[in-house]
Every structure is written in C-alpha cells, then in structure tokens.
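User: Let's play a game. I give you a shape written as tokens, and you guess the letters that built it. Ready? Here's round one.
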C-alpha cells in the first residue's frame, strides 16, 4: 500500500515539476507568446442574418492556432512538449542525441508579433466585404497574463447590413461575339436584388470566358472583362455594368478554327524518319513506329477546320497520356503575336515514347480485411504497349505468409490460423471498350476492357490445402467525374480441396451446410459494381462514397442446361456449380472538423446473399464474416456470429461455422493529430452476420427481428496511426462492450467476462475504411 502511494506521489510531483517549466525561456526580449483566442464574438446589427459562409470566412483569419492546440484556437493541451523541447533542449551542435531529440520534438513558439491581430482584423473585414457586408468592423484586444510573457486575444466582429445588386448591364461586343454574349445573359449568375458576393462576380466572369473559349475565342481571358459599379442610385445597392476592357487586341475578340495538326513521335532509340498522313494530322515518326496509326488517330480529338476549343485541346492531351506509352506529351499552339490576321491555329504535339517493359519487386507487410497479417513478396512483369495501342500485360507471381491478430474472444483459436499463399495471375488491360462504336461514342469518359487468368494456392496446415483457378472478362468506364462502373460480363472460378486433415473432415461431417460450401465446385458468375465518390464543401472538407455490388452466379448456365432438359443437380464438367445472388452496399462519409486534420469518418455496410436452385449454400469464399482489424476491432475475425450462435470453446475449428448470408456493420471513428506524423483515433464499431435459413447445428444463427437488437456486437477503442506518406501504420486496441451470445457469468448488456478478456489488439497497414 505504501509503495503504491509513494509511486502516485512521485508521479504527481513529476507532473507538477514539468508543468512548472517555463515555455518563454528563450523568447527574445520584447516578444510575447501567443496562447490563443479567449473569445471570438460575432454581433450582427439588428435584423441582420449572416450566412454561414460569410461567418466562416471572417473567423478563419482570426482563428490562429497557438502551440500545442487541443481545440484551436481556444484551448491548449496542458503538456506543451514541443515548447519545452524548444526552450530546454536547444544545442548549437548539429549532431548527437540532444540535437536529434531537439529536431524531432521542438516546436517554434507562435509569437504575437507573427500573429499580428491588427492586420488580421482588416483581413476579416475584407472577407465580410466580399460577401456584401460593407461597413462591418472587427476589433481586437490583448489579454496579457499577470505573470509571464503570454497573452490571449479577444475579437469582436460587428456585421453591418448587407448590400444587394441593383441594375445589371451585360457587355456590348462586336457583331460576331454579341449573339453569344446575349445568349449567356439569361443564365447569368447575377440577379438584381441578390446579395453582393465577390465570388459570384468572379464566377460570372469565368463562366462567360469558358463559354467564349468553347466557341473558338481561344485567347480570351477573364481579366478582359471588368465591372463598373455605381452605389449612388439606391441605398445599399450596387448597380453593375459588365464590359470589355478598352483597347483589347483584335485577335482576342476573334474566333479561331483548328489549322494544321502535326505530331512528332520520338523513340527511345532514334531511327530513320518517316512521315505519315492521318485523317486530321501529319505524323513525323521514327522507324519503327511504336504506336498503331488508328490508335493515334482516335486519340487526336482536334479536327482540322472545326472550332478550336480548350476542351478539345485538353482532351487530346489527356487521351495521349492515357495510352500509357509516352514519357511526356507537350502540346503547343500558334502564339498570339504570330497570328498575323489568320483565322486558324496550328497545333504541334511532341510525344516521347517510354520504356515498354517494367519489372517490379515488392516486399511488404499486408493487413487484410480478414485480420491476417504477414510479410508478402510480389514479382511483377509488365508490358505497357503489347500491341502498339497502350495494351498492358501484367504477370504477377506472389507469395505471402500470414498469421492472425486478435483477442481472447476467439477462444484461443487465432494462433492456429497461420497460413501461406502462392499465386500466379495474368491480366490484360485494353485502354478502350470492346463494344460497338455507337455505344462507346455516347460516353463522355474513356473506358477500358480487362481480361484475367490466375491460379492461387492456399495452405492452412492444420486444416486444408485449397487451389483456386479463375478467369474473367469485364469493362470499366465512367459516366461522370464521380460515377465509376465495373461490369464483369463473365467470371469462372473453380475451387478444389487438395488435402484435408482429420480434424477438418470431422468438422465437415458435423456441419453439412459448411461442408457443402467447401465442396469442389465451379462458380460461373457475372457482376456489376457502381461507385460514387465525391468530395465537396468550400474547402473539400466533406467526402461521400457509395459502392454497390451485385453478383449473380450460375443463373445463366442453369437456364441453358434447363432448356436442354437437365434438372437439378446440374453439373459442369462433372462438378456441381454454384447458383446464388449476392448484393453488398457500402456507404462512407467523411467530414473534416475545424481547420486542422481532424476527421469524423463513418461507414455502413449491408450485404445479403441467397443460394437457390443448384445450391443450398453459397461457396465459403462468398459468405459474410465479421470482426478483425478492419471491422469490429474488439473481436477477432469470425469470432462473432452468426446471430447469437457461439461454437463450443473446445472446438478449435469453430471459426468455420461463423459465417452468414446477411451482414450489417456500422463504424464511427474520430481521427485527430497528435504530434507531427503521429495521429490518433477513437472509434465505435457494431454489427453481426446472420443466416437466412434455420440451421439446427447452429442455434440462434438465423435472422430474427425479435432478437435483432441483442444480436448486434458492440465494441469501442482507440488507436495510433503513423503516416509515412505512402502508407499508414496503424495500431488499434479494441474494447468489447457487448457480445451477441449470452454469457452465464455476466448478465446485462455489458456481458464481457472481464475487461481484459474484452481487449483486442490489431496491427495493420492503412486506415480501416
């Protein structure tokens, strides 16, 4: 007892001693340490309603974070480690442990002279004026501490009534440009009576310029338009006249067409020169020509005689780059000062070929969604221009050894899940859609066609050796910048057990439904995945992601065999094939909180699969499971579910039972910075899997709406992430709160036997979602 009390007293004394250390010891004479904002008051005049965007714009320049912020700019952490290191660990010698320690931890103090509150008040006033709140005033006052050279700042933002637009006049141009300008007035962003907004004025100039450049006015720029304002006609109203600046060069006000297009191709090894004429371009190449003329012609969307548009120019350069065969692509247009009254613009394209062959050897530590962790080795050989059209042939040889992380909730089984994998996979990606031209032309974004063949061997020494052969063909395309589509028109997988142990065979005998999912079988399927991924918000501080996948296996083949007179069970090459449908929908939403790198991340996954016809259960690899480093982190993978079912504690193969046909999972995680590249997170995870059909060998496993709330496993926890730019190393400690299976030793919602038993540690690569 005395020893424990003594340790506590020493710890408290140490903290008090550290806290007493000065954080202004090395601050130059006359300087003051800025410790944040005490109050930031927003006080609109009577009847004034301030937009959220305007208030945020005014607050931003005033919200300067002090050293070691906890909730910037108002609160600081009580342990300013960076400032202590800066004050007490400085050394003029640029070597040694002390210098290394100083460089790693020291943070230069944020001084009041650098913050400059008076200057920031004027910036905030300008920000309010940009939103039409002319006459607003921002004041600051210094709040120095009684002891020490430290001070906080108080800000008061008084917001005046906003100004609005009065009459708005559009530009007057020559007879060629005027009809186009007039057509834009009806869709103008500026409306009489609307509140003044500088961003809207800028956007309107850009909108007009974009439209003009899309109609051949290549050299027109937003700065050639100017606003003339009159504030005397009506109180708090601005009358605007938008016009062309005087004395603009005549060439700026003139539409142009595409003239001659010349493409120069440069090989890695120079060869004899040759000239080739395409439909819309002249190609000066070096023999042998490394790209097919048809492929090159398809990528050149600049057509001689058509209006010269920036969109066509950018699209041509993008298409050439997407071929993946050029090291660089440079496009130049006739300079403005060289036109001499001409009506067309000549284009010169210089493209330098890249090396077609690439060899890559990758060694890494992988962390999979099933919580397996281990070293991996991948040898990849790529040919990036196989048929002189940007076709990419990849051959990958990979091997990995894996072990699983987890906690006691797995019943001590995780150590027996060590395994290794070997695989050989070949893929061919064509940078175009092998579809009728009239279909492809309807798409505004390019697509690709992919073929794949592979074989994988998995060895789990205590259970089985499994070999899987696979082949597929599919398309990938976009319908917008945010919408992506993956269509697998055909995929065939064949799974075969090469060897099983006696323990595994016994488990299969006791669980017929599991045994059927492991049988030798073909899985012919088609699939479609839609992905929507968009960042939005004024500063890109929000992101919405939705992915929905549908897989249909065996249905087309079953229909063909049925038409031929074959009834169930139907066979393919002497083996029964799977027949099922599967749907998985995943929604993720990210929201940045404040100006620092603090994010609230959320995820919801719903999945359902149904076997019928030629199958009673889905293949084991297609069933759902839950738990692990990227799921409910308080529990090991496959240690929860289905439903309230739990295998006997002495069943080392019980994890094979813990899969289901229906999955529901929800995650919430708050991510925050700690120090430099070190970040932290706190999280809450919930979910489970269920069967859609009753299984007498797994009582409580079927989906039952009456017991549904109790079947949701719940866990919380915290973790550390170290970001080294190209990957994130993650360590999470999960804390179990509720298991769906009953615990006779612990009743109530919190039914974990002990706090220690509810802990699950996971080491992983990358974020969980």
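Assistant: Ready! My guess for every position:
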């Amino acid at each position: 007892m005395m020893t424990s009390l003594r340790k506590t007293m020493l710890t408290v004394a140490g903290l008090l001693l550290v806290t007493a250390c000065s954080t202004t010891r090395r601050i130059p004479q006359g300087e003051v340490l800025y410790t944040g904002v005490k109050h930031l008051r927003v006080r609109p005049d009577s009847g004034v309603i301030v937009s959220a965007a305007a208030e945020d714009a005014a607050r931003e320049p005033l919200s300067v974070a002090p050293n070691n912020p906890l909730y910037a700019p108002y609160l600081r952490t009580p342990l300013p480690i960076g400032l202590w290191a800066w004050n007490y660990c400085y050394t003029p010698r640029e070597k040694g442990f002390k210098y290394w320690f100083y460089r790693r931890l020291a943070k230069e103090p944020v001084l009041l002279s650098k913050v400059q509150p008076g200057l920031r008040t004027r910036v905030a006033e300008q920000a309010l004026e940009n939103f039409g709140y002319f006459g607003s005033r921002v004041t600051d006052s210094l709040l120095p501490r009684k002891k020490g050279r430290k001070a906080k700042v108080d800000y008061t933002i008084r917001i005046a009534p906003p100004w609005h637009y009065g009459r708005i006049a559009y530009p007057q141009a020559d007879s060629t440009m005027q009809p186009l300008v007039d057509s834009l007035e009806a869709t103008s962003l500026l409306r009489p009576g609307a509140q003044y907004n500088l961003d809207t004025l800028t956007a309107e100039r850009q909108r007009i310029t974009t439209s003009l450049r899309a109609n051949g006015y290549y050299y027109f720029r937003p700065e050639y338009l100017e606003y003339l304002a009159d504030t005397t006609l009506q109180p708090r109203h601005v009358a605007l006249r938008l016009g062309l600046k005087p004395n603009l060069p005549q060439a700026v006000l003139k539409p142009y067409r595409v003239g001659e297009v010349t493409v120069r191709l440069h090989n890695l090894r120079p060869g004899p020169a040759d000239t080739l004429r395409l439909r819309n371009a002249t190609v000066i190449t070096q023999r042998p020509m490394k790209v097919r003329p048809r492929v090159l012609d398809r990528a050149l969307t600049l057509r001689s005689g058509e209006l010269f548009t920036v969109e066509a120019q950018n699209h041509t350069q993008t298409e050439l780059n997407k071929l993946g065969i050029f090291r660089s692509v440079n496009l130049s247009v006739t300079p403005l000062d060289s036109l001499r009254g001409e009506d067309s613009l000549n284009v010169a394209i210089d493209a330098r070929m890249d090396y077609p062959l690439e060899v890559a050897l990758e060694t890494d530590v992988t962390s999979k969604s099933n919580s397996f962790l281990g070293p991996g080795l991948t040898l990849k050989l790529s040919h990036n221009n196989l048929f002189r059209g940007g076709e990419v042939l990849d051959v990958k040889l990979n091997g990995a050894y894996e072990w699983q992380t987890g906690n006691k909730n797995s019943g001590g089984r995780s150590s027996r899940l060590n395994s290794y994998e070997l695989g050989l996979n070949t893929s061919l990606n064509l940078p175009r859609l092998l579809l009728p031209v009239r279909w492809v032309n309807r798409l505004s974004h390019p697509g690709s066609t992919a073929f794949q063949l592979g074989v994988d061997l998995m060895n789990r020494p205590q259970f089985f050796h499994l070999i899987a052969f696979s082949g597929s063909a599919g398309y990938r395309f976009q319908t917008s910048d945010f919408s992506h589509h993956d269509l697998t028109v055909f995929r065939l997988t064949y799974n075969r057990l090469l060897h099983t142990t006696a323990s595994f065979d016994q488990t299969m005998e006791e669980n017929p439904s599991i045994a059927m999912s492991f049988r030798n079988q073909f899985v012919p399927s088609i699939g479609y995945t839609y992905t929507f991924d968009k960042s939005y918000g004024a500063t890109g501080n929000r992101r919405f992601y939705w992915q929905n996948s549908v897989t249909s296996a065996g249905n087309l083949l079953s229909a063909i065999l049925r038409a031929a007179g074959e009834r169930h069970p139907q066979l393919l090459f002497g083996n029964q094939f799977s027949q099922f449908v599967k749907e998985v929908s995943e929604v993720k939403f990210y929201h940045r909180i404040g100006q620092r790198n603090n994010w609230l991340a959320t995820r919801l996954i719903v999945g359902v699969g149904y076997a019928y016809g030629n199958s009673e259960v889905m293949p084991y690899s297609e069933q759902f499971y839950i738990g692990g480093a990227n799921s409910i982190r308080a529990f090991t993978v496959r240690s929860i579910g289905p439903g309230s079912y739990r295998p006997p504690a002495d069943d080392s193969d019980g994890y094979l039972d813990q899969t289901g046909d229906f999955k529901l999972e929800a995650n919430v995680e708050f991510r925050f910075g700690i120090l430099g590249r070190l970040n932290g997170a706190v999280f809450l995870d919930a979910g489970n899997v269920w069967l859609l059909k009753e299984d007498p060998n797994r009582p409580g496993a079927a989906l039952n709406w009456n017991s549904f709330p109790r079947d949701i496993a719940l866990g919380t926890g915290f973790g550390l992430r170290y970001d080294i730019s190209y990957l994130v190393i993650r360590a999470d400690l999960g804390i179990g709160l509720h298991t769906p299976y009953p615990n006779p030793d612990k009743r109530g919602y919190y039914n974990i036997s002990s706090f220690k038993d509810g802990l699950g540690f996971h080491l992983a690569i990358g974020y969980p979602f």
